[in-house]
Every structure is written in structure tokens, then in C-alpha cells.
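Chain X:
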Amino acid sequence: MKLDRICIIGGGSAGWMTASMLSRHFEGTGIEITVVEADDIPRIGIGESTTQFFNTFIRYLGLKDEDWMPKCNATYKHSVKFTNFNQNGSFHYPFGPRGTDIPLTEYHNWRRGRNIDSMTFCRVFSDVIDPIEGNRLYPPFLDRYVGYHVDALLFGDFLRDHYAIPKGVTHIKGKVTDIQSCVDGISRVYLCGGDRYVDGDFFIDCTGFRGLLMNHLNVKWVDWSDLLKNNSTWAVRKPYTNKKEQLQPYTECTGLSSGWVWNVPTWDRIGTGYNYCSQYITDEDALVEFKEHLGVDIPDDKFRLLKWPTGIRQKVWSHNVVSIGLSAGFIEPLESGGLYSVHEFLFKLIQVLPKSTTKWNAFQRAQFNHSVTSKFTSFRDFVVKHYTMGHRDDTPYWKDYTNMDSLIDLEDEEWLGEFPDLLTQEWENIQKINFMSEGEAYLLGGYEYDIMPEHYEMLSKENNYDIPDFEEPILRRTFMDQTLGRYPNAYEHYENHLYNGKGN
């Protein structure tokens, strides 16, 4: 099928990230890209914390941090700190390479004979923990191994005005009122206000949970609420009271009775929200608990109540329509899966849509669907482990999560759809998701699991393997403690290098 005219329905961060990446990918090919955006559709604007993989998207567009961060009130994110997700205090999931070359399995073997807490685990394994706990940045990782806190609404506007449109993307304001079908899927969308319409060969649904185009094609939404219990959020933006101390270079997640609260410090304020399951607490009681946790006086009208489903489309790409963002799937805010799914789905899309051609076929579509659904399912399972492995049982919510049955095996999920027999094992191997291994390592260490196989000691003896002495990394951490002053305070770095003295 031809690919001369791409029509993106919906703006916001998902729509303009899509337009930006495709305009970069198809630059010079003559392919027309149009964004149709309705003015009266509210934007959620919650996805304000990113993974470290967002950095890859930024670099792909050729953007430098000083180009976009000041326009989006963005700050750096070195880690995710989890508090009250288990009964062992707090721990970090830091980004970037490990600070020691101790293999994970050997670390756990070493740890058997020592009383090592969750935070010490993180400190041994990452150089960033000591600086960020003192609100300092870690410059060696700022070019690559870093995520961001960002105002998602401003980011979408930035990409629209400073990237996509200057690269030739057409922007049409209008609400879709009707959709014209064809044998390939969709051929035209009609807009309110007379005989206005937009034709396309290839459509991208960025209409959020409405899933306007996907619902028109009757593409099923696969519900994941049996695994992901949270379905509600009270969200609010709170001002800084001591910006220099509160501007942490990490996202903090704190467990409450029926969910958890995020803390995302952007340059101008702190974004926060209580993510919970309405099965265990009423919206009214959740708001009371949230306010008590915040400990600051914020007017009631500043709080927004959001309801949302968890799941994924049975086919993210159906006919000539690809869904990106919330229209494609949603897990929940934990581990910043919202914006993550947008750029990772887009990277997979441009892999199967080479810019050297203006055509696509069913096999490319099948490749894409298999890859993104596998990846998103792996991410789902990773998120669920945050709840099931902590062994909190002090409230019905946490007790039920701890006692949850085993996760669904990917191979048993028939909803993934058919995949052509001609797809070789080699392709499947290429698509295997390995990025979770590092995250799971920190998760298991933070929850103080001993993940060593029981027969490890026996195998070590058989191979004459000596377990090394690991005292040196601890000594190196002491050295780090003494030299923290060399790392810049986050607030001062932003003022001096990004925000030009516009501190308060």
C-alpha cells in the first residue's frame, strides 16, 4: 500500500512527538505529514517523568538540552526512588552503567554473609546515588544515561512550534466529525465547519483514550485490570517552599494505603498525584489521604480526578491505521510508561517503514504488531513486580497484590494475534526484550531478594570458582562520600546553564 500522505489525528505530546519523528525520518522524501488537532479536546498532561530511553528520542531529533529544556520547564532525572513499597525502607532504581563491575549473582552471594540493606545495594551498584541523595547532578551521565522531568503540555507545544511545523508538517485545527472507510481501512476524515476534510494513505491515531480511529475499525481493547489494579488518580501541582532543597534529580514514588504517590520536580513546580485503585478506597477518602501525605494547604479546585483503563489494543496497527500513545495502550504512571510507549512504538514504526520507499505491506505490519505488543507486555510484567514482590500486607490493597497469582505467560496470550509462519526465529531473537534485566536487578536488590540459585555454591566448587573479596567497592563509596562537593547542586546548575538566573 502507498505511503504518500500521513495524517495524524490528535495533537498533544503523543501527536507532536509522532509528527516530529516522522518528519525527521521522512525528511527529503516528499511524503506529506498532516496533524489534525481539535481545540476543545482536553489534554491530560500527566506524563511528566520519562525513562532514560527518552534521551534517545531527543538525540534522534538532533535536539540539545539547552534547545528544549528551558522551554518545557524540564529537569534531569537520574533515578526512581521507591519508598514504602516494601517493609525494608527505600531504594533506588538508578539510570546508567553500574558503578562497580561486581556481577549481580556474585553480589548476592557476597551479601549472604553480610547485613546489607536496600539502599546500600544501590550505592554499591551505581555512582549516581550518593550525589542525587544530596540533590546533586552527576555530569558524566547527562549526555546519555539520564531521563527528564518535563511539562508534557509544554513539550508538545515546543515540538509543534519549534520542530514539526518548521520541518514542513501541516497543522490543521478541527474536530473530526466523521470517518470515511475504504478497503484498506480509512481514506478520509471530515472536520466540523462545513465541507472540510483531510485525505490520507496512512493514519495515526493519537486521540488518547478515545481511540477515535481504532474504535472506528472495531479494534478490540485488551483489558489488563486483573494485573494492574490502579484505575484512578488525584493529580495536582504544588509550589516549591524551598526550591534548592526540593529540586531533586530523581522521581520519588511513595506507597500509601491503596496505591502510591509520585513526586516529579520540574523547574517551576512539583507535579504530584495519588495513583490508586477505587476498589479499595473511595475517591473522597483517597483525596483526604493524599492531602495528609502532601502536608501543604492546596485549594480543592486545584486537584484533578482522572479515571483510566489499563491494557493494549489487540492490534496496535490495523489496516492503514497505527495507534500511538494512550489510544494504543496504557499501563499506569509507575516507571513512566506513558511517554515511553510513544517513542518506543515510533522507533519500531520507522524500522519497518524505511524512508527509501513510499510503500508498506502486511508483513511489515505484522512485524510491528508482534514487536510492540511483546515489548509492552514485558513492561507490564515489570511494573506488576513492583507490587507483587514487596510483600507488603498491611492493607487489603497490598495484601491482595502480594498474593496475586503468577503472571500470564506471553506465549499463552492468544490476543497477540497471528504472526506469519514465514517469520523466522532470527527475527524473534532480534526482537527479544533485554532492557528489563537491569531494572529487575535493582528491583530484586531493593526488595532484598536472594536471587541466587540454590545450586550456585555447588557449581562454584565444581568449577573451582573463588568468590572475590568485595570490600573495595564499599571503600570506594567512602571516597565518594568525601568528594561529593565536586558535583554541582541541581538548582545551581539549572540556574547557571539552562534558566539564566530565573530561579524563583
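Chain Y:
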Amino acid sequence: MSRVIKLITKLRVGVIVAAGLTVLWTAGDLRQFAQIDPNASAAEISARLDDVLARAMEKYSIAGVAAGAIRDGEIIWSARMGRASEEGDSVTGSTAFNVGSVSKPLTVWAVLALAQDGSIELDAPISRYLEQFELPTGEYDLEEVTIRRLLHHTAGTNRHGYGGYGAHEDQPADAVELSSVFEPLAVVRQPGERRVYSGGGYVLLQMMIEDVTGLSFEAALQDLVLRPLEMTDSGFALAKLPSPSAAFSYYGSTIEDLRDVALAAAGAYASGDDMARFLLAHSTGGGVLDDSSLDAAFAPTEPNASFAMSYSRWETPFGLLIGHGGNNSAWNAQIYVRPETQDGFYFLANSTSGAQLDFDLSCAWLSMIDVQEGRDRCAEAISVTHKISWVACGVVLLSMLVFYWLLAGMILGKRSLSIRPCSFGPIRLTLRMIVFLGVIVLLGVAVSVFYTDMLMWRTEVTLIDEMPVNEIGGLLMSTTILLILLGAALWSSPIKSALKRKGPVSS
């Protein structure tokens, strides 16, 4: 018996030591964001951002990145790191990344270019120009579904976004067919009443651009925006890109790229060099847009001044800051630009874990340009990630206690991991089964979220709208362990109490 007691004591000490190490590890791994002195030289800023990027790529296992920073109209930092293909080809300035919803600002520029040359009127109903598609009639006046409102996400259209199609999947032939495959495009709320993000609205703009120009959307965007801005390594047709990147999972393995039919909403590919050109054009129009068109693009939305035409917008003491993020499958992108001061930032990543890089790099750049709101929102996001980390730590500690209780009970001969229907009866056994199945369902949800690429939750806790995936992943992993242990606990039986109920065994 003394040997058993010694074993239990060692187990208890081991649990205490493990708990202490867990607390120390959690405390040491809490995420921080690098703050950069706005008065630092370009060389100092570049070195600091290089350091932030290198650390983040290692920590989050990101395959490839193209990122850059602009100050006073000059590119002061340009980073091309990691691999663009499974074979190990390096990311270069011409490597094209899928930019997800950053496609929308490109669409905005194309629509404004058409309005600028008189081909369309921004305040006209889109039905005036649509030939291949007709919005279904309903309780709302379709005359109020104007091009300007579609650009602002205030037209009342449905569909937040659309899924992509794998290489071996049949995809809709065009945007019209896309509308029939998914929820049909329709007006589901009063136009102009409030802003609701709508990829469906941008699909309508995509069809309008094709009908007005007589070209495919890809060809029209090349003529209207990409070629005039000399974005030679960018486009919406993957097969036509000179150097497209592959997509990588959270675990570093190559995954199947998804083809988009909703090109205007999320189908663009752009290289780092081209994205820098696009951001620089926000100050001058780049020969595509004049000052009045730029003003229209950046003007606040009537129901919500925090948004412009597919840009988030923030008023700062040093001028208007606008930005947009994008996520598609394993792709992540983020742009910010302050047109008045000609400051800008972008990052493009080909990995699911790139969402984490968004936070680290964006917050460093926001501190550099001395945007107080950005600092505050980054600090808020830091607070959220810390809370998630400590909750995960608490779940781990609880798991250790459950493990100790189970193992100690089995060592002492007080518990076993077996069903004892004779002892507990059918009702108690049924209840146990129901609870156990509930635990298994929760376990399945946790595993499906964490151990796959399904972690797509988003929040607006910072200027960057990405959920802290690493912290959430840690919480889910610790919860998974706890659920497994709780499942084992449900099957454990108190041996001694069961024997007492049976009474003495007759000889």
C-alpha cells in the first residue's frame, strides 16, 4: 500500500509541476505588438518590420509573404519572403497572391472609371444597365438599387459572400448561373436604410461591367484599372498570370486552390509590386481616376461614416485612413492607405495562418504612422488574445485535475473505466449515455474546427478584422483534451460503492 501512496504522491507533485509550467508558458507566450517610433529613419523602420515579419513567419508557420510600407509617397519597406510553390520557388515581387475581398476596391475603381467617362451614372438604378440578369421584384423598389448604393453595400442585396470551386469541381459558367446555384440574388431590405456587407451586390456590379463594356470582367478590369496602373502581374484569370503562388494550409501543406466566379467580390490576384502601385495611386488616381472620383470612393457611407465604397475609413489627426482586408481559403491580404499623406501598407500571404501575420504587421505599421485609434484598437485586440490564452490555460489546469482524479482513483482501486448496468440501473445508464454522446458531439465540433482549415471566424476587435487563430486554436486544443477526459470520467465507476450495494458475497 505504501508503494501506491508514494505513486499517488509523485503523481500529485507531477501535476503541480505541470500546472506551474503551463502557467509560465502561457505568460511567456502572450502576444504583443511591436511599436515603431514614427520618427525613426526609413532604414530603422525597415529593419524593425523585417524582424516582426521573420518572427511571425516562424511562429505561425507561414509559407510565403509579400509585404510593403509606404511613407510620404516612397516605398520604405518591401519584403518578399518564403516559398510560392510546393517545389520551393521563392516569393518575388511578381508572385501573384489571391487577395480575397481586396478585389472589391479594384472593382470600385473600375465602376468609377466607367462613371467618369460617362458610360454609367452612379445614382442610376443598376437595372438600367443590366442585360444578362434581372433582379426579382418584391416588396422593395428596385429603382432605389443604385450603383452607388451597391458600391457602399447599402443597396439591400443579399449574399455576404460565395464559396469557391476546386479544380475538379464543376463551377457555374458565369455570375448569372452563380446566382442560381447559391441563394438567388435579391433585394431583401430597404435600399439606403443601412449598410450590410454584400458580395452579392458586387456580383451585380460584375455583370453590369460586362454588359456596359461588352467584355469579360477580367478583360474589362485589365483595360480600366490594371494596365493603366501598370499592374502587369495581377488579374482575375489565374491561367493568364505569369507567376501565381500556390496556397498552403495552416500546417504548411499545399492545398487545392479554389476558383471564384464572384470575381468582383473576391477573385483578384495581385503581386506585391503591383499592390504597391495600387496604393500609391490612391493619392493621385494613377491616371485612372480624377480627384472627384477619388473623393467619391473615399466619402463616408450615409448610414455609417466608418465605411466608404468597400473601404473601412478612420478619421485621424493626420488625414483619412482607409483600408480593406481579404480572406479566401488559405489566402490572406490587407491594405491600408492614407491618401493625403501618401502613407500605405499591404501584406499578402499564401497560408491559412497568414491571418496572424495580419495582426502583427498591421499593428506595427499603425504605430509607425502614429494613428492613435489604431494603437487603441491593437491594444484592445491584445487584451482579447490574452484573455483567450488565460482561459485556455484554465482549461488545461482543469484537465490536469480531472486526469489526476481519474488516474489516482484507478491506482487506488476506487474507480474503473467500465459500464456497470447492474449497479446503476437502466435509467442512470441511459442518462450517462445521453451525456456521453453530448460530450462526443462537442468533441467532434472542436476537432473539426481546430484540426481542419475550417477556422474562419472573424471579429472586428481591431483595425485588422481577423480572429486570433493561434489563441483560439490553443483554446480548442485544450478543450478537446478536457472533453476526452470528461468522456472517460463519465464511464468511470466507483468500485467500492458498487460493491456495498451488492452486499456481501456468499461462499
